[in-house]
Write a structure and sequence with these properties.
Helix content: 25-40%
Strand content: 25-35%
Order of helices and strands: EHHEEEHEH
Largest sheet: 5 strands, mixed
Number of domains: 1
CATH superfamily: Gcn5-related N-acetyltransferase (GNAT)
Shape: globular
Protein backbone atom coordinates (compact mmCIF):
# COMPACT_ATOMS: atom_id res chain seq x y z
CA UNK A 1 0.00 0.00 0.00
CA UNK A 2 1.32 3.43 -0.95
CA UNK A 3 0.27 5.64 1.99
CA UNK A 4 0.82 9.35 2.50
CA UNK A 5 -0.29 11.79 5.18
CA UNK A 6 -1.23 15.39 4.53
CA UNK A 7 -2.79 18.45 6.08
CA UNK A 8 -6.00 19.47 4.33
CA UNK A 9 -5.85 23.19 3.47
CA UNK A 10 -8.88 25.26 4.58
CA UNK A 11 -9.91 25.88 0.96
CA UNK A 12 -10.14 22.08 0.44
CA UNK A 13 -11.84 21.30 3.77
CA UNK A 14 -15.08 20.16 2.13
CA UNK A 15 -13.17 17.22 0.64
CA UNK A 16 -13.58 15.48 4.02
CA UNK A 17 -17.40 15.46 3.82
CA UNK A 18 -17.79 12.02 2.17
CA UNK A 19 -15.90 10.37 5.04
CA UNK A 20 -17.24 12.64 7.77
CA UNK A 21 -20.84 12.05 6.77
CA UNK A 22 -20.33 8.31 7.35
CA UNK A 23 -19.88 8.89 11.08
CA UNK A 24 -22.09 11.96 11.39
CA UNK A 25 -25.49 10.78 10.26
CA UNK A 26 -27.57 13.04 12.56
CA UNK A 27 -26.51 16.46 11.27
CA UNK A 28 -28.36 17.65 8.16
CA UNK A 29 -25.90 17.91 5.22
CA UNK A 30 -26.27 21.69 4.79
CA UNK A 31 -25.55 22.30 8.49
CA UNK A 32 -22.61 19.87 8.45
CA UNK A 33 -21.12 21.70 5.46
CA UNK A 34 -21.45 25.09 7.20
CA UNK A 35 -19.85 23.74 10.37
CA UNK A 36 -16.92 22.19 8.51
CA UNK A 37 -16.27 25.46 6.67
CA UNK A 38 -16.34 27.33 9.98
CA UNK A 39 -13.99 24.80 11.59
CA UNK A 40 -11.56 25.18 8.70
CA UNK A 41 -11.36 28.91 9.42
CA UNK A 42 -10.34 28.43 13.06
CA UNK A 43 -6.65 29.08 13.83
CA UNK A 44 -6.88 26.30 16.46
CA UNK A 45 -8.08 23.63 14.04
CA UNK A 46 -6.31 21.53 11.46
CA UNK A 47 -7.55 18.56 9.48
CA UNK A 48 -5.18 15.79 8.44
CA UNK A 49 -5.79 12.86 6.16
CA UNK A 50 -4.27 9.57 5.10
CA UNK A 51 -4.26 8.71 1.41
CA UNK A 52 -3.69 5.54 -0.55
CA UNK A 53 -2.13 6.96 -3.67
CA UNK A 54 -4.56 9.86 -4.33
CA UNK A 55 -7.62 8.34 -2.57
CA UNK A 56 -8.48 9.84 0.83
CA UNK A 57 -9.03 6.85 3.11
CA UNK A 58 -8.90 8.45 6.56
CA UNK A 59 -9.38 11.79 8.28
CA UNK A 60 -8.77 13.33 11.67
CA UNK A 61 -9.48 16.82 12.91
CA UNK A 62 -6.98 18.29 15.37
CA UNK A 63 -7.97 20.97 17.88
CA UNK A 64 -5.07 22.77 19.58
CA UNK A 65 -5.23 24.50 22.96
CA UNK A 66 -3.20 25.14 26.08
CA UNK A 67 -4.65 23.75 29.27
CA UNK A 68 -3.57 24.68 32.78
CA UNK A 69 -3.39 21.04 33.91
CA UNK A 70 -1.41 19.49 31.01
CA UNK A 71 0.11 22.26 28.86
CA UNK A 72 -0.14 22.48 25.07
CA UNK A 73 -2.67 19.88 24.07
CA UNK A 74 -4.21 18.48 20.92
CA UNK A 75 -7.62 16.85 20.64
CA UNK A 76 -8.19 14.45 17.76
CA UNK A 77 -11.76 14.76 16.53
CA UNK A 78 -13.87 12.95 13.91
CA UNK A 79 -11.31 10.20 13.39
CA UNK A 80 -12.38 7.81 10.65
CA UNK A 81 -10.79 5.21 8.41
CA UNK A 82 -12.82 4.04 5.39
CA UNK A 83 -14.59 0.77 6.13
CA UNK A 84 -12.77 -1.22 3.46
CA UNK A 85 -9.42 -0.25 5.02
CA UNK A 86 -10.26 -1.04 8.65
CA UNK A 87 -8.57 -3.89 10.48
CA UNK A 88 -5.33 -3.48 8.52
CA UNK A 89 -3.36 -1.42 11.04
CA UNK A 90 -3.95 1.90 9.25
CA UNK A 91 -5.36 3.58 12.36
CA UNK A 92 -2.16 2.77 14.24
CA UNK A 93 0.00 4.06 11.39
CA UNK A 94 -2.13 7.21 11.10
CA UNK A 95 -1.83 7.91 14.83
CA UNK A 96 1.94 7.33 14.75
CA UNK A 97 2.10 10.08 12.12
CA UNK A 98 -0.28 12.30 14.13
CA UNK A 99 1.88 11.90 17.28
CA UNK A 100 5.00 13.02 15.40
CA UNK A 101 3.13 15.83 13.63
CA UNK A 102 1.65 17.27 16.82
CA UNK A 103 4.82 16.83 18.90
CA UNK A 104 6.65 18.85 16.24
CA UNK A 105 4.09 21.61 16.90
CA UNK A 106 4.98 21.56 20.61
CA UNK A 107 2.10 19.47 21.94
CA UNK A 108 2.70 17.88 25.32
CA UNK A 109 -0.50 15.86 25.55
CA UNK A 110 -3.43 14.47 23.61
CA UNK A 111 -7.02 14.26 24.80
CA UNK A 112 -10.03 12.92 22.97
CA UNK A 113 -13.68 12.02 23.21
CA UNK A 114 -15.29 8.92 21.79
CA UNK A 115 -18.91 7.88 21.90
CA UNK A 116 -19.72 5.41 24.67
CA UNK A 117 -21.31 3.08 22.10
CA UNK A 118 -18.13 2.96 19.95
CA UNK A 119 -16.48 0.07 21.77
CA UNK A 120 -14.05 -0.69 18.92
CA UNK A 121 -12.56 2.78 19.34
CA UNK A 122 -12.21 2.24 23.10
CA UNK A 123 -10.06 -0.83 22.54
CA UNK A 124 -8.00 1.04 19.94
CA UNK A 125 -7.35 4.02 22.24
CA UNK A 126 -6.51 1.79 25.23
CA UNK A 127 -3.99 -0.02 23.01
CA UNK A 128 -2.56 3.38 22.05
CA UNK A 129 -1.91 4.20 25.72
CA UNK A 130 -4.90 6.47 26.41
CA UNK A 131 -6.55 6.36 29.84
CA UNK A 132 -9.92 7.61 31.01
CA UNK A 133 -9.46 10.63 33.29
CA UNK A 134 -12.84 12.36 33.09
CA UNK A 135 -16.37 12.29 31.75
CA UNK A 136 -17.41 14.53 28.88
CA UNK A 137 -20.69 16.31 29.55
CA UNK A 138 -22.81 18.02 26.90
CA UNK A 139 -25.73 20.42 27.16
CA UNK A 140 -27.51 21.55 24.00
CA UNK A 141 -28.36 25.26 24.22
CA UNK A 142 -30.46 25.47 21.05
CA UNK A 143 -34.17 26.05 21.53
CA UNK A 144 -35.05 22.64 20.02
CA UNK A 145 -32.75 20.92 22.55
CA UNK A 146 -31.72 18.34 19.95
CA UNK A 147 -28.26 16.92 19.30
CA UNK A 148 -27.23 17.27 15.64
Amino acid sequence: MNLSYKTIPPDKILSILPLLSKINTKTPPDILEKRVIEMGKSPNYECVAVFEDTKMIGICGLWYSTRHYIGKSVEPDHVIISEEYRGKGLGKLFFEWIYKHTKAKGCESMELNTYTSNTKSHKFYYNEGFNIYAFHFLKVLREDGKFY
